[in-house]
Amino acid sequence: MEFEAVIGLEVHSQLKTKTKLFSSSNNDFGEEPNSNVSVVDLGLPGALPVINDKAVDLAILASLSTDCKINTKSTFARKHYFYPDLPKGYQISQYDEPLASNGTIIIQDINGKDKIVRINRIHMEEDAGKLIHDISDKFSMVDLNRAGVPLIEIVSEPDLSTADEAVSYLKKLRNILIYADVSDCNMEEGNFRCDANISIRRAGETELGIRAEIKNINSFKFVKKAIEYEILRQSKLISNGEKVVQETRLFNSNSNKTFSMRTKEEAHDYRYFPDPDLKPLILTCERIDLLRNSSFQSYNKKLTTYTVDYKLSKDDSEILLSNKALSKFFDDTLLVIKEPKLACKWIITEIIKHINLDSFVLEVENFANFLLVLKDGKINNNSGKELLEKICTSNDDIELLIDSMDLKQESSEDLLKEIIEQVLQNNPDEKQRLLDGEVKLISFFMGKVMKETKGKGNPGIIIAIIKKEFNIS
């Protein structure tokens, strides 16, 4: 019996604000427990929430970046449940009137074709606190620093079919939010985490099966393993004539299995009702357009620019766009030197190692000079790596460094011919095999010549000489 999975994801992403969603408490990760907590976060009597405008703007940018329709009116509701890390006894969220809806994200399916994943909604909400279980053997500790932290929840339609597609969707969404500067999406700090809703049905059926929700998965690796296990678990149950129970489950990363946490709540279990302390959030078209028309450019439009206008591969483009600083460095470089493919090559292989370090001081103009000496053949790739390693942390003058480090490429045909002839004499067996047509040995001789020139030989000239010597076209 063949089954197919139906998967929908709910992603919580923390917004990059200095303060919390409804209070002036600091929104800093890693502070002393319970040091960033106010009377609003605690829900003390008489304390009133005030919406954080910066958080609203970031939520709008996230919605624009995922091609969502932004609703000019949205409302906040109280979502009631009782847990030790929720001091108010309810969470302020959005329910029937979310900030945005009807968006799309395009991923690659298992056949490498574009697949549209629909976004049902994006809504704003505050985070709960955090329970800490590993400090005491007798008690669980409560840290409320996270209580009130601003989140957006991005809810997809059940358009995903495999664990790999789910991971692809999450990676794409994470890149989109990072590029829009909406969130750091640091999974280790818990500010990008996922709930996965999974059901299965017999292949060819259209009716959805009973779903299980796996809560708070915080790595791509665990998302893949959790979904794969859950598909297998549900398939076995149905094959054995048993029923899948609608429930909330957790993933154990040690056993790579999910286990039951509680029966799944429905919306009525949370007793949603409009928060009486918060007016509806009214967004003017002017405010939305101002954000849309500022320096904002969506991830998808930028990806099109890179792949269509600059003729970069999609993979290389997505690496550039996975880091805001990286893509900005690339864009700024092209303002100085119009060599998109050459710039991309060195940025995604070498600059990427340094750009987020405090020691990175390389200026765009100097990097453009570096590309220019490469293009002009003054240095080769091996010397280029050595030179770039130096200038990333010094920003020294390129021409002076080439001289002081003795990196100038050797392009003299007469000298290279002498070296090649000596290498051929020293390796008669390999020379004969090349004469017999074993073309791959060109790489062998290239390595030998480069060693003799201490890595400074011009590869293009070396290959041309060898090919001419052996009549290889």
How is this fold's topology laid out?
Layout: E1 3-14, H1 39-42, H2 53-65, E2 69-70, E3 73-74, E4 77-80, E5 90-93, E6 100-108, E7 114-126, E8 130-132, E9 141-143, E10 150-156, H3 163-179, E11 192-202, E12 212-217, H4 220-239, E13 247-252, E14 257-263, E15 273-274, E16 281-282, H5 285-293, H6 299-309, H7 314-321, H8 324-336, H9 340-349, H10 364-375, H11 381-394, H12 398-404, H13 413-426, H14 428-435, H15 441-452, H16 459-469
Parallel strand pairs: 12-13
Antiparallel strand pairs: 1-10, 1-11, 2-6, 3-16, 4-5, 4-15, 6-7, 7-10, 8-9, 11-12, 13-14
Helix pairs in contact: 3-4, 6-7, 7-9, 8-9, 8-10, 10-11, 13-15, 13-16, 15-16
Q: Quick recap of the structure?
A:
The protein is an alpha+beta fold. The chain has 16 helices and 16 strands.
Model description:
- By secondary structure, this protein is of the alpha+beta class.
- It has three domains: 3-282, no CATH class; 322-404, no CATH class; 413-469, Arc Repressor Mutant, subunit A.
- 39% of the residues lie in helices and 20% in strands.
- It has helices at 39-42, 53-65, 163-179, 220-239, 285-293, 299-309, 314-321, 324-336, 340-349, 364-375, 381-394, 398-404, 413-426, 428-435, 441-452, 459-469; strands at residues 3-14, 69-70, 73-74, 77-80, 90-93, 100-108, 114-126, 130-132, 141-143, 150-156, 192-202, 212-217, 247-252, 257-263, 273-274, 281-282.
- The strands form four sheets. The chain has a nine-stranded mixed beta sheet with strand order 2-6-7-10-1-11-12-13-14. A three-stranded antiparallel beta sheet has the order 5-4-15, with no helix packed on it.
- Strand 13 and strand 14 (257-263) form a beta hairpin.
- Helix 6 crosses helix 7, helix 8 crosses helix 10 (364-375) and helix 13 (413-426) packs across helix 16.
- The protein starts with a strand and ends with a helix.
